[in-house]
Amino acid sequence: MSKKNNTAGILAGLLAGAAAGVVLGMLYAPEEGKETRKKIKNKANDLKDQAKNKYGEVSEKVKDQYSNISSTFKETASNVAHTVKDGYDKYKDQIVSKTTDVVKDVEAELNDLKK
């Protein structure tokens, strides 16, 4: 997540720097105040639109990555559950078989002792 936070911070810094540069450039340009304010407003709207677009792009990438990670995790968890269940079933059958053999051996020994 910190890589995404760094990317967002860098993007915000670049946009803020660009906005500051545009505003300073317009303020020092030899035009009427009304025209300068209009240009600043237009640039601000352009930057706002660019920021919205970048936010949408980053948001989609995060959603896609979350979806990929989520499905990978679910698949891995399912595989682990199947492996554990298969192991349990395998060993359960072996234990039942061994227990049955032991019971038969004990019964045979008891029968021999009774004779």
From TrEMBL:
<dbReference type="InterPro" id="IPR052928">
    <property type="entry name" value="Desiccation-related_membrane"/>
</dbReference>
<protein>
    <submittedName>
        <fullName>Gas vesicle protein</fullName>
    </submittedName>
</protein>
<dbReference type="InterPro" id="IPR036191">
    <property type="entry name" value="RRF_sf"/>
</dbReference>
<dbReference type="InterPro" id="IPR024623">
    <property type="entry name" value="YtxH"/>
</dbReference>
<dbReference type="Pfam" id="PF12732">
    <property type="entry name" value="YtxH"/>
</dbReference>
